[in-house]
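Methods — Computational structure assignment.
A single polypeptide chain was analysed. Its primary sequence is given first, followed by the predicted tertiary structure written as structure tokens.
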Amino acid sequence: MAPGWPDEVRGDAPEGSEHSGEIPAREETIADLFKAHNRALHAFLMTRLRDENEAREVAQEAYVRMLQLDKPGAVRFLRSYLFKTAANIAIDRAKQRKNQARLLEAEAVEEPVDQLSPDRHLLSAEDMEIFKRALLELSPKCRRAFLLYRLEEWSDVQIAKQLGIQPRMVRHYITHAGLYCRLRIKGLSPEQAKVAAR
């Protein structure tokens, strides 16, 4: 038997144990299997895993599972059972690796980083409120042209058709609305912003 196996596997079970007669038989069966097929099993696993250490680990786990069988002699084709067990372990490990890779990939996708300090964040919320009020202070056509252009990404020609005006007027509305809202956010009153945005 290969060195390094636990005492209970080597058959050093205490006298009077119910299984003291079964363990040496089980050990001998698995030892024979190991001697006869370990090299082939290792080569088989290398073709699947392509990693020396992992192939060894999977083979070892397969032998451990074989040792855990109540009656290894009851399995008609132990070699086939060993290889099938090893293949299943290899498949499980490959699935685990894929899942871990997916998780790592998901974690690696950077969340948008909010670079604003709490004060600036608050200021941005205030700016948004001023922006909303500024939009409501615009004429209905000017506001509609600006929103269709900025939010819906319509062309000036599409907006002109929608509002029944010339594309040139649409461009004027968009420029005026953008400038007016910026001035209001900077702190100008509605009257001052109207004058400055003309």
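Note: Confidence is low (pLDDT under 50) at residues 1-22, 108-117.
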